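Sequence in, structure out.
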Amino acid sequence: MNLRTLILMLLAVQATSASVRAQAPFVPKTGLVTENQNTDLLKAVKFDQHLGAQLSLDTEFRDESGKTVKLRDYFGKRPIVFALVYHECPMLCNVVLNNMVTSLRALEFMPGNEYDVLTISIAPNETPALASAKKRGYVTKFQKVETLPHWHFLTGDEPNIRKIADEVGFHYEWDAKSGEYAHASGIMILTPDGRISRYFYGVEYPTRDLRFGIMEASQEKIGSPIAQVLLLCFHYDPTTGKYSLAVMRILQAAGLVTVIGIGMSIVTMLRRERRQRLGGGLHGLS
């Protein structure tokens, strides 16, 4: 890697840091879908972080065709972008999935290559037919119909839904007053072996954060060299569910560039001095 490439990488880091500084501070949101202001209900609906937890991959659900499947059928190859939603949700779930698709569409990564997409409905009464219709709609919005086989919209029975929701820390409750589910908003990144790697809260998922999350979940086996360097300069903050600039890492990167630059300057001067000595010796012989 030459000095010019390193300088370009450093400039990319500086440009990204300026963008980060311009962002407003993140405030976690529960994203409740309920008109019920019952305090106990509101307290029950939250997102707990279980980073590193292993999902029970033998848990059974139904795919869009109604076939019984196990979660492990979707793991083992690449990271998973994961969401718990329900398809008849009047507002929040649509916002979550729409924004997720919009951010994924801006990535250079592609479902089936670097990641897959998996959603599970928290409503046990929802059908595979409804899940199939939602899947087609979101893949159409993604504008890459060829990725359809790598989007998975599952439905299931209450015990299995609760089991996975509890494992990822996603708390939701049925609100009898409104006839809807009260639930939090956010998406997750899972590793190829089914562990929880990253949480992204709220309804906005910056493309940069999704890129870094997928790269880390893949054990950094994907991503361009510049993206790999940028990842070194950011760290994931579990309290906000976002990546923020790591100042010390930037200083280390800048220091590395400086050391390499000084080293190259010394080599250049030594070579020039050697040529001058050789030139002087030859002149004396003549």
